[in-house]
Sequence to fold (137 residues):
Amino acid sequence: MAGFNKVILIGNLTRNPELRYTPNGTPVAALGLAVSRRYKQGDDLKEEVCFVDIVVFGKQAEHCGQYLSKGNGIIVDGRLQQRRWETEDGQKRSKHEVVAQTVTFLPKRGDGGGGQHAGGESGMHEDSNYEYEEPQG
Fold:
């Protein structure tokens, strides 16, 4: 039976993106994402937060490093991956993370503009008159 591995998350960055480059020059950004869920338990309104590590490659990684910072909202579309390694003292470790295919920037609170894909295309515009101008730099 064939598997299906698709993850879509909406949340806020818990830290500034960490941009680095592989030995062959590929950009890689590590993001921390907080995804919250509100639910009612009896008369109380509760909130549960899930913290997820996100990895972004290529030009999108560079855009994330350049334009995102702690607290920014994003939509991540990607796949779940498990990394396994062994520590220096021989202990086996593993962790799950999401490898992003696309990252969509959400407007800052109070900003009426639309979102921006890390790949450069405009996305999620509520205002049909919205015009995006590529940041210079």
Observations:
- Residues 119-137 have pLDDT under 50 and may be disordered.
- The two ends are 48 Å apart (CA to CA).
- The chain has one helix and eight strands.
- Helices lie at 58-67.
